[in-house]
Amino acid sequence: MPVLRLDRMLSGQGIGTRKEIKEILSGGSVKVNGKTASCSAMKINTEKDEVCVNGSPLKYKEHVYIMMNKPSGAISASDDPRTETVIDLLPQSLRRPGLFPAGRLDRDTEGFMLITDDGVFAHNILSPKKHVEKEYTAVIDSPVSEEEIYRFENGLVIDGDFKCLPAKLRLLECDWSNGGARVLITIHEGKFHQIKRMFKALGHEVLYLKRTAMGGLRLDGSLLPGEARELMPEEVDLITSGNVEVNR
Fold first, then answer.
1. SS3 of 116, please?
2. Per-residue DSSP letters for 24-65?
3. Domain 133-214 class?
């Protein structure tokens, strides 16, 4: 909807709480089309009206899309009274009401976490029917065989009765010092502990796991664990419009 109450628009863009916005308005810090605005119920056309806060134009965004390099230890949740969440890690400049992690990564899994306030978009990238690829690198305790790669590609059965969608498994390198291996996995679904359960079904243990791409968009290599940045529109499109190009 292009028309919103002024206070709702400001709070939705992370300017402050309803109470804080009332104080901002009473202080004369908000102007609409060059005129000081003091009424919180004032109607704003988000496509036409110019809103400035403390002299700076406010660019309205209906939704935001954030890439985070999730660190091990943080949980994929919007809030938790006991444990640090991915939302807690966001810098103040990226925070706004309604943000949530699109999907989940296990607590000890690192890598590409998408955070947004767009529920429809999140559903579309997480639904197995949409076939949006999720790519991971993993370190497992022993090398994989050609037969196991074949089983991944033809729908591996886990937990005795659940058949996964066809997935890709590629051996990247063996670590002969400890008998383990680094592998690349691409899946189209995200069941609870799915990759760990898939390897368990083959007799392997996952020692390290990191999501490296979603759709056609790779994790920004400049983001340190715990860091995040907003995605450009063309990057958001890459998530749904393409599959990962293997360049390893």
1. strand
2. HHHTT-EEETTEE---TT-EEETTT--EEETTEE----S--E
3. alpha beta
- CATH for 3-57, options being 3.50.30.30, 3.40.50.80, 3.10.290.10, 3.40.720.10: 3.10.290.10
Report how far residue 179's alpha carbon sits from residue 181's, in angstroms, rounded to the nearest whole number: 7
Catalytic residues: 106
> What span, in angstroms and rounded, lies between the C-alpha atoms of 218 and 86?
19
Give dist(CA 138, CA 141) in Å, integer: 10
Q: What pTM did the predictor assign?
A: 0.86
Per-10-residue mean pLDDT for the chain, 248 residues long? Answer: 87 86 91 92 92 92 96 95 95 91 94 96 89 94 94 93 93 77 93 93 95 96 97 94 57
> What residues contact residue 15 under an 8 Å CB cut-off, 6+ apart?
21, 24, 53, 58
d(CA 224, CA 67): 12
